[in-house]
Amino acid sequence: xxxxxxxxxxxxHDALVRKIVTPSxxxxxxxxxxxxxxxxxxxxxxxxxxxKTAQSIKEVGxxxxxxxxxxxxxxxxxxxxxxxxxxxxxxxxxxxxxDATVIAKLKRAGMILVAKTTMDELAxxxxxxxxxxxxxxxxxxxxxxxxxxxxxxxxxxxxxxAPLALGSDTGxxxxxxxxxxxxxxxxxxxxxxxxxxxxxxxxxxxxxxxxTRNVLDSxxxxxxxxxxxxxxxxxxxxxxxxxxxxxxxRKTLHRIGYFKAVMDGISDPVIRKSYVELLEKLKKRGxxxxxxxxPEKLLDALYPTYMILSCAxxxxxxxxxxxxxxxPKAEGESETYSxxxxxxxxxxxxxxxxxxxxxxxxxxxxxxxxxxxxxxQKARRLIVNEMNRFFDAVDYLLVPASYxxxxxIDSLSTAWSTKPDFLDNILTLGNFGGYPxxxxxxxxxxxxxxxxxITGRIFEDGYVMGLGKEIEDLTGLKDIVFKEGK
Length: 486
Ligand code: GLN
What we know:
Strands 1-3-2-6-8-7-12-13-11-9-10 form an eleven-stranded mixed β-sheet, sandwiched between helices. The chain has a two-stranded antiparallel ribbon with strand order 4-5. The relative contact order is 0.14. The model has no long low-confidence stretch (mean pLDDT 96). It starts with 8 loop residues before the first helix and ends in an 11-residue tail after the last helix. It is of the alpha/beta class. It has 17 helices and 13 strands. The chain is globular and about 65 Å long. It binds glutamine (GLN). The site of glutamine (GLN) has 12 residues, from loops.
């Protein structure tokens, strides 16, 4: 059987239009990939429904860019009739009655949903090791993490199982794993894509994202997914754009900025060299490359600010998970609703989640609010003000998307770091300000990939994609699939 799923959407589309392949053949290739998955990427499958849909597609026209092509979705997107757990025991047995808007839109465009992917429990975490199905590994080296929280989506794309997988990004959950898996990971401007049906984590930062093999595919998916949705009042009314035109015409802005503190902080010589070389190449292509002195004090504030705000928001967003209609039943007799709920939640959440809820509740207590939550809100405002000042002078921020090889799984610790490295949290800038942000492959260190990340002004998603294409051409790294023994 020809291997199709390691190809980008653009090639699959072409083959469908020319009738070299049928949607059913593509689907069978995808199903086989899922069955042979080596990284623990999957929560649930929808093969029967997918087969029916594939058979019903008789014709694919040149304009139907996505029709007949399989896709995957992180398990925090509601999918009608398919159990959706966000990789948490507390949601075991929950079968949504409706599709998230993004799922519905992709289906309407003719795409075929084949499976749901693993994640860090409730999208909290960055390692891909905390979901209830266990660790999701990196195809490039199974002893290492692929990163999270969208671990299954990243590892599936990297293995060549499908050409598109949806993810969600609250801190860096699409853009970090993309870096560790040599895939393209995009997070849209806050509000550009409807979040109806996406389980909320931290509402003020959550954005829909996705993994593809190249920037052009990403731009096509954004064109289909963007736009106002009356089911999500935070979705923007702004006019939809044809994002692929930015990529096809390589439409970009001119000034690319880097942070002095980031440049000084990169300790891995391989990553440093590739990053500096990329900046040089961009200069040669005529871009103005600008150093910006973003205050280190604010960079050091990223982690505590993110932790307090995201834990607070997630504590209230997840307060509805009471274990009554689904999830593990509380043991023994319960006198009251809150007694039952306490027991069910104790059983249903892992330690990491409980710890985050403790932080969230603590910072929201009226006695602590001023000192913790309000202070974090103020810190966020300062961080974003400074970013907006940056964007007054410069059009893009370019940073490495990871700063070391993916961590070894046996080296992970559950202890909180007391002196977090701001480089590990730099991508949260994109969520604090709601900016569009794209990670794409930059290079390999030994056999392990690392990416580069572009962040732009809000609603300049198209220009971010345009520069992504420029960089893709400069690195020559696109349509990458992990190959055994390489
Ligand atoms: N790693 C971050 C966290 O632990 C980001 C998670 C995300 O973007 N969903 O919360």
